[in-house]
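Aggregate trends can hide what the representation actually does to any particular protein. For completeness, the protein is quoted in full, as a sequence line and a line of structure tokens.
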Amino acid sequence: MRRRHRFDLYWVIGLSIITIGFFVYSNTSAGERGVEKYSEALKAYKSGDFELAYSTFAKVPYNSNLKQAALFRQARCATNLDKKQVAIKKYKRIVHSHSKTSIVPISEYNMAYLMYELNDKGAKRQFKKIIKKYPSSDYAIASNYYLGKINNTSIPESGKHRLKAKNKSFIYFKTYIEKAPDGRYSLDAIDEIKNLKLKLSGYDNLLIAKSYYANGEYAKAKEHFNLTQLSESWADFAKNEYKLGNKDKANEFAEKGLKEFAAATDPQDVYDVIDNYVATFSPRKNGINKLSGLGLKYTGADYVAYLNCNEVVASDAKEACYRTLYEKYPDGQFSADALYNVFINKYLQKRYYDAQRLGYLHVRKFINVKSSPAVTYYMGKISFKLKHYESANNYFKQVLAKYPDSYYALRASNNLYKDDGFLPFLDINPKPVVFPYIKSLDKNLVVNLALLKDYDLVEELCKKDKFIQSWIAYEKGDYTVSAILARNAMEELESKPPFEDLRWRLVYPLHYFNIVEKVKGGNNPIILQSIIKEESHFNPFAKSSAGANGLMQLMPATYNEVVKKNNIPSTLSPEVSNITAGSFYYSGLKRSLLNRDLYAITAYNGGIGSVTSWFTKLLYSDTDEFVEQIPYPETKNYVKKVLRSYWMYGNIY
């Protein structure tokens, strides 16, 4: 009996091993065949051979991770071949698979749209289901538009139900333009509303006007703004008048609105109006003074006061202005920055105990605001000045931990590790920009599609992920859009990922670094790369309002002078020529300014004459005091941005 049991056990174990082996082989084989067939089909799809693509996508194995994407692509092929019923069947297979991948919602919407085109009565039910299942999605918003179109077909010619049916259509179209004022169908939705010939409220007209404004139809927007209550529309009305070039009328609306209606208006709209208003005056100070004289009491009064403080030049007067601003609006939008300016002024006056008290208040009251990295850093500097060395190091470590991607992280590192060289990185190891995620939440479907270079489908599935949109722009060669999208996406993250995170490479890519390395001369190549990033965002055709050109934004006269002086060949490509000239120009600035990168970076934006004059006009004992006292706000910010980029490039690569 024991032998029999032992034989049975061996038989079960052996069968299990064979089963597991077959399962592993089957899935491995399915994965490999899935990739192979999907790649073949995608190539045919991109070439426009939809018949071949359809049949090849069908060969992707059922248990392949790519099967749903293949079904989706088959549906697209069928649509292109005008076989809409076939496409609907493919979408239904995806929808009924009970999968939770990102491909399901778009499949449901596409299915509903095709049903609508075929006048299938089930389209209405399907669009309603989309709104219920994905209420905050773009698919739900678009479904409102199509439900309005469907409802229009059932409006009776006459009778008591006619008005009710028209109102139902109106609500669908209104919901659409309310949620997507600049949407694909917004102008069509407005036309549909007008065709209903219903009496519109002031709010309805305001929605229509905003939608016209969002679509650049300013004259049409004005017609509907004229039918609104000024208390509700003044800010939008003013912005629309600015777009039409009616500055006097716009300023009239702005002044009236700021005095009477600002309290009930979205603060950002108020700030936009103020910016537009001030921009109509030359110098800007005249516009600020006029607004200051209106005696504003509501939202916007603090912003006008803030703009006024920014215009003040004298140090003592500037501090007094910011102090008054903080005391008058302690919980306002600009109170944190106002308190920081008083704090930094006390620090520069070497009144360290006064500055420390203000710093404690700022750290306690304001969490993770724009000025937090600077305040935390200078609290460390103050502690060091007062010989509280352990406290100083703790503050510097806080900057590195909480604000690792800031200019002050570089400065904290310099102080913490006593790096007298100021620039700790001399070279970097280039790494390619790759898809920003190693894994995705849909069983890695998006990651696999990215690896197969199915950019169009990835873009559709991830419309709201700015990092993925950035990567797609990068893959398509639109480096400027890519860098800006990634930068904005990273700024929206409350806590920043480690430097190893692949998303950082999109924010700080190494476009043209191969050229920089060849023509760097005696310069730090990371500094040159950082200047290119901040000057042009990698756009070789960039041209500033002042006339500066190219990747390193050189003025024509400067460029011609450097080319002639250094015998730069005329046969070089524009990119190589511009970077070469920029490198020589930077070297010249550096040699003339004590051979220090800090001063060369400052002069690259502010001019060498200004920097040499600041050597005698400014009272400073170290790097920080020099930077914080640069009189030109644009130049001060430029220095911090370039050095921040330098710091980030060094850490990422």
